[in-house]
UniProtKB/TrEMBL annotation:
NCBIfam families: HDIG. Signal peptide: none annotated. Residues 21-218 form the HDOD domain. It comes from Thermosulfurimonas marina. This is HDOD domain-containing protein. Gene3D superfamilies: Hypothetical protein af1432. SMART domains: HDc. It comes from the Bacteria. Transmembrane segments: none annotated.
Length: 288
């Protein structure tokens, strides 16, 4: 059996045993497809989103946080859409769906629900800050990849919770290994691959699940700008210590990452400051 077929067998084994992960909401999928259009009918967008009460409630809660700096409190989706940019709408929409997947600790990675929420939101905010400074005015699918990049950890946690404890032991005994290498030794796959497979099964665009697949792979992350920006966002948020787990320093990054992402070194500090301030504002709204 070659590595490809072996990996496919591992992924099939993982997903055959999983019935605890709900599908990504169809409401959000439809809304995201509408947001790809050049001209967007906000009333149609509102008709789509309002059918999911949980997404609507989360959307309004997030958008009224200080992170978005709106001039007044909004009480309806249409009010929010009229005050937000398209990129912000995408970000809040995807973030509004995350809560249903982040309800319990991810023990093998030493992450609480609040920590993985914080990390995911911070990566999404960082990707937006970097994309804006890099001149990407409509960075299609970037926020999706950045917000969902670690969803494979949730899948692995549900599938082999007991085995995850072995990851820390493997890293203690083999400090030269990256966390991804340790995942391969223990599980036969890594959380990037597992997350990408979940998003593929959910029928997300290929560039999204490729970026999720690549965010810890030193060669793959250089193959597309979206993958490079996702990986860079994650790396910077890790260095900031926002919602990090035991794997925070157990990865390597290629020197060419900034170039592949199209980001200047001078833009990193202001992006970090902006991300920190907005993340703290969102945390105050979500967890107060």
């Amino acid at each position: 059996m070659n590595q490809g077929s072996g990996l496919a067998a591992v992924l099939d084994q993982i997903f055959e045993k999983l019935d605890r992960i709900p599908n990504f909401p169809e409401t959000a999928q439809r809304a995201l497809r509408l947001l790809q259009n050049e001209e967007i009918d906000f009333r149609e967008l509102e008709r789509i989103v309002r059918h999911d009460a949980a997404i609507t409630a989360n959307f309004l809660k997030l958008v009224n946080s200080a992170a978005f700096g709106l001039p007044r409190k909004v009480n309806t989706l249409l009010q929010a859409f009229s005050l937000l940019g398209i990129n912000q709408i995408k970000f809040v929409l995807i973030a509004s769906c995350l809560g249903q997947y982040l309800k319990e600790p991810i023990k093998g990675y030493n992450l609480t629900p609040e920590e993985i929420w914080t990390h995911s939101l911070a990566c999404g905010l960082m990707s937006e800050a970097l994309a804006r400074r890099a001149g990407l005015h409509r960075p299609e699918n970037l926020f999706t990849a950045a917000l969902l990049h670690d969803i494979g950890k949730i899948v692995i946690h549900l599938y082999v919770e007991g085995e995850l404890e072995n990851l820390q032991q493997v890293l203690r005994e083999n400090p030269e290994l990256t966390f991804m290498q340790a995942e391969w030794m223990v599980l036969g796959a890594d959380h990037g691959i597992v997350g990408a497979e979940l998003l593929r099964r959910w029928e997300f665009p290929k560039e999204v699940y490729f970026a999720v697949r690549a965010h810890h792979d030193e060669s793959l992350m250089l193959e597309s700008r979206l993958a490079a920006l996702t990986a860079l966002s994650n790396a910077l948020v890790n260095l900031m210590g926002l919602g990090t787990g035991v794997d925070v320093f157990a990865y390597h990054l290629p020197e060419e990452l900034l170039k592949a992402a199209g980001v200047s070194e001078k833009d990193l500090y202001p992006a970090i400051v902006e991300t920190f301030e907005k993340t703290e504002a969102l945390k105050a709204s979500l967890f107060s």
